[in-house]
Amino acid sequence: MNLAEKLKGHGYSVILFDSLSPQVHGDLPRLESPTLTSPNVSVVRGDVTDASALRAVLRDVDAIVHLAAETGTAQSMYQIGRYNWVNSQGTASVLDLLANERDTVERVVLASSRSIYGEGAYRCASCGVVYPESRPLAALQAHDWEPSCPHCHGATSAVPTPESAKTNPPSIYAVTKLSQEGCVR
């Protein structure tokens, strides 16, 4: 909604195409905000894997900000098919339509996820910036939530992970977000 507000403020017309998933929006999504009821914003409930719904909503669209995805790393590990279908196939549906039927779209912007980097970057006082692997089961069972340095096993502190870092997706969610990046790229 924040993005819609910004785009509306710059004079763009915005179509929000969303499944309004209860996991993200609650059981009864509220659509009464001033942004969602303004004349330059349309809300269309639909599924990103539904080519006919996409076809209808993409008429005369010149840019897509692709935010569609099932979210949640833990849940993705036991709803593998659902996450793969929505995240990977949904992106493929958009791109297939653009490649074969739509010529008005000039730009696709995709929101990825920091989860594609696994644990991400950490600073070790002795070794500098390091990229720990996933924490071992024994550490998790001991409630040791902080990753240690993969070289000296010392304490670490989180630092920003650059986009140039090696990807290391530890969940189905992360794998599908990385797949989205590859397809859009």
Key descriptive features of the protein:
alpha/beta, single chain, 185 residues, 7 helices, elongated, Rossmann fold, 2 domains, 3-stranded antiparallel sheet, two-stranded parallel sheet
What does this structure look like?
With 185 residues, the chain is an alpha/beta fold. The protein folds into two domains: 2-115 and 164-184, NAD(P)-binding Rossmann-like Domain (Rossmann fold, 3-Layer(aba) Sandwich), CATH 3.40.50; 119-158, no CATH class. It is built from seven helices and seven strands; from the N terminus they run H-E-H-E-H-E-H-H-E-E-E-H-E-H. The protein has helices spanning 2-9, 22-25, 51-57, 73-76, 80-100, 137-141, 172-184, and strands at residues 14-18, 41-45, 63-66, 107-110, 122-124, 128-130, 156-158. A three-stranded antiparallel sheet has the order 6-5-7, with no helix packed on it. A hairpin with a 3-residue loop joins strand 5 (122-124) and strand 6 (128-130). The longest helix is centred in the middle third of the chain and has 21 residues, at 80-100. It is elongated, with a radius of gyration of 20 Å. It starts with a helix and ends with a helix. The relative contact order is 0.15. The mean pLDDT is 90.
